[in-house]
Amino acid sequence: MKMYLKEIFKQNKLDYSVLSQFKPKEGREVEILSEEEYRGIKEWLQNYSLGFTIIPVFTNNESDAICVFADGVLKGKVFILNHGEGYFMPRFKNLKSFISKINSVNGDWHNLPDYAFDYPIKNESHIEEIILSELWQLIHQNKFISESHRELIFQTILYLTPPSKLETLLDFLKDKNYNIADQAAWLVGVFHTYEPAKSLIAELVKTKYKNHYLRNQFYEGEFKKKGFWRNLFDKIH
Fold first, then answer.
1. Using CA atoms, how far apart are residues 120 and 192, in angstroms rounded to an integer?
2. How high is the mean pLDDT of the chain?
3. If we measure between CA atoms, which residue out of 52, 68, 90 comes closest to residue 15?
4. What phi, psi does 6 have (nearest 5°)?
5. pLDDT of 223 strictly over 90
6. Which among 16, 132, 174, 207 could disulfide-bond with 9, CB atoms 3.0 to 4.6 Å apart, if both were Cys?
7. Is the dihedral of CA 158, 163, 167, 173 positive or negative?
8. DSSP structure class, residue 137
9. Through-space distance between the first and last CA atoms of the chain, rounded to whole angstroms
10. How far is CA 34 from CA 1, 38, 65, 67, 196, in A?
């Protein structure tokens, strides 16, 4: 085990013993970060002001990492740091959950099936009402230290909102931050295929998503752009 990481977990009052449940396996491209790799990712994260202490824990040896929030309302939750994306919303409720899922696959977290992720929430019984309420309070207070911090809070609300409360997210579709708006559109129009939002998505398809990659994914391809010959056939008939 990594003694430097044990000390960091202790300082942040996180349970280091959970890492003993990780079972290295030949062919699995996941391992605990070396201290040098840890420092490199921490340095990279300084490009953002996310409003939380973050501890990188695992790597896939492709400069990506599994990170845990060490404080605040998201303490203990886990996100995937993909350098090509820059999204930081939680995907697992804690390290124990991530480890239990990754132990069962070869490769890395990209090989996990969709149902392996804890977030976005699809099962109504998995709602975390207290955390969701605290996140909404942060939005109402509107005291963000950066746009990256604001984006993280909004996107986390998207991922922690259960199906019965999706109507609370519809204003996110109009957010000035495209990353928030796009995640909202993906969540309601692709992940949940939320029917009450279909008319809103239809309007967006005419403008913002006219040539966007999400267009073909909304409502199982219902708004997929037609090719030339299909358009001609429709006009004739």
1. 10
2. 92
3. 68
4. -60, -40
5. yes
6. 16
7. positive
8. H
9. 68
10. 10, 6, 12, 14, 48
